[in-house]
Amino acid sequence: MKIAFTATRLYTPAEEIAQPLLLVEDGVISEVASRSAKEVPAGAQLIDFGDAVLAPGFIDIHMHGGAGLDVMRASPSDLPRLGRFLTTHGVTGYFPTTVAAPLDATCAALERLADAIEGWDRNHNLVHARPLGIHLEGPFLSHKRRGVHPPEYLIAPTLEIFDRLWHAARGHVRMLTMAPEISGAMEVIAEAARRNVCVSIGHSDAEMPVAQQAVKAGARHATHTFNAMRPLDHRDPGIVGEVLSDDGLSADLIVDGIHVAPAVVKLFLQAKGHERAVLITDAISATGMPDGRYQLGPIEVDVKDGKCTSQGSLAGSVLTMDRAVRNVTKFSQWNLREAVRAATLNPARAVGLADQYGILAKGALADFIVMNPAGDVLKTIVGGEGS
Ligand SMILES: [Zn+2]
């Protein structure tokens, strides 16, 4: 069955196509063209979105939950409900992200998440985002920059513990946030990179030379830049100095207007540029829910007026990716296409999934969104099927 989607504009997102034609067969994109170059094939079902914009579905590589569900506690059968919630905000693929917790509990959570990843199914009654891989945020974090990760569950990195986590997750670990300055870190960075894990430096008090050494060992990304990092000093640039000045590194940011001031968001975008800036939500189970007390792994979080805290420290967010994208257009000179790129192609590239995700191109999965020109998500399509 061939479906032809049309609209007024399409973001690939590296380019913009006017009067686009997006052809989908069996959940995969078979062609992206302009209608002036290609006609709707005979026999194809035509779905016209009028004056809307088509773009890849958002990829959130750092999220802990939403709609009342915490990814470390949810059962595999619960996750479609979270996936459904995510699609209402334009997310079609995500990395469930752990926090530091007792090792046994973490391994049990990783097994459940591996089940959810392997068991994801295109469900015709419930269009839901795909869990694409697991992001381990910890347990190899700095005590000094742990944020709300409980100190009793932080562990010094060893190959043995990394391997235990890797096997519990049945190889689905695709991202690892760790502090490079802890003893044993460089060996784990090198081994994780060898297994194609995107090693991301973060929750770290590293000085600049140590951060550079981590990059040499295989780290290629940075986690929620500025938050839970040794701050930038112009004579002691530290990890932030390396993240902002190294063009080989991509880096992510929480653009909720709370974690990072709008002027610093602008600085970050200028430093990392259109190809390496990545948006994440760091969203917790409270996302899409009323104010109150929520669980983030083993951590209790209070949510008030959109701010998540635990004992006075910021504890994730209730940010949604569509709002992060709109915030970028408000806080900087970036247009909607550039902001969308930071939530689609850039994260997919950072984690090595851009052949099929985060891009509208032949051979990629037909996971896309329909937006109005203000960036409001009107409809989300996963595997060629919409909700
Ligand atoms: Zn997080």
Layout of SSEs?
Elements (H helix, E strand, L loop, with lengths): L1 E5 L2 E3 L4 E3 L1 E6 L2 E7 L10 E4 L4 E4 L1 E6 L1 E2 L2 E2 L8 H9 L3 E6 L6 H17 L10 E2 L2 E4 L21 H10 L4 E6 L6 H10 L3 E4 L6 H10 L3 E2 L15 H8 L4 E5 L7 H15 E4 L11 E5 L2 E6 L2 E4 L2 E2 L6 H11 L4 H6 L3 H6 L17 E4 L5 E6 L2 E2 L1
Parallel strand pairs: 1-6, 2-7, 8-11, 11-12, 13-14, 14-15, 15-16, 16-17, 17-18
Antiparallel strand pairs: 1-4, 2-3, 4-5, 7-23, 9-10, 19-20, 20-21, 21-22, 23-24, 24-25
Helix pairs in contact: 5-6
The protein binds zinc ion.
The site of zinc ion has 6 residues, from loops.
Any overview of this molecule?
Helix content is 26%, strand content 27%. The protein has 387 residues and is of the alpha/beta class. A six-stranded mixed β-sheet has the order 3-2-7-23-24-25. The protein has a six-stranded parallel β-sheet with strand order 13-14-15-16-17-18. Helix 5 (208-217) crosses helix 6. The protein is globular. The chain starts with a strand and ends with a strand. The structure holds zinc ion. Zinc ion (ZN) is lined by residues 62, 64, 97, 137, 282, 316.
